[in-house]
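ok trying this again, last paste got cut off
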Amino acid sequence: MSWFAKLGRAYKLTLEHAGAIGILVWNSASAVVRLKVRFRDVVRQMHIMGIQSLPIVFVTASLAGIVTSQQGGYQLISSSPRYVLGTLVVQSVVLELGPLLTAIVLVGRIGARITAELGTMVVSEQIDAFKSLGRDPVAILAAPRIIAGVLTMPLLVGFADVIGIWAGMIMANIDGGLGPETFLYGARLFWHSWDLFYGFSKSVVFGFVIPVISVHMGFRTQGGAEGVGLQTTQAVMFMILTILILDAMFPPLMLQ
């Protein structure tokens, strides 16, 4: 019966997390509606999530475009017209690699940071100090990060898409002798405006999920410095698994 008890504990823990996240989202939305969120805090978080993340997003998107172009050229060189490589790179970057890799990068750079930061505030009783002064920690700490994530993620994904396509086009020229005109012809030939909407829909969802989970896990931290480290590790695993599950749900929902 031990496996049954473990299953019950896992089910209970899942419901606890779901309920706590639901309450966090509701309280954050209430703080926004009641104008309790300071614009300056949102801008500061957008700078941390957006501007400071551009270098790593640039590197990740460039490598994604380069690798996609090289592997696509290897697979298509003898079986398809050369311009199809432009279609492959653009579709891969816009539909999948741009949103997904940017989200995973932000999990490591932003999600872990938020969890560790808030977890440290919890174990050092700074959150209790906010409450004792009559200030709402959700309005001060949670809502600005969630708003910034939703606003910043689509911008980062747009940047990653442009860089990834540009890097793929350059590599196609260097590796396979495919000129920019031919590459862009293939990209336009099978392009649909819905593809762009699909990719940015992913970015909005991921930009919402990452700060929500990281704030939620940070507020649940216990046990001092060791607890902060453990909770941060669990938060990263939780965010990556959630992003991959959501990513798998998008094609049947939006590409059918």
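PB: full thing came through this time. The chain has nine helices and no strands.
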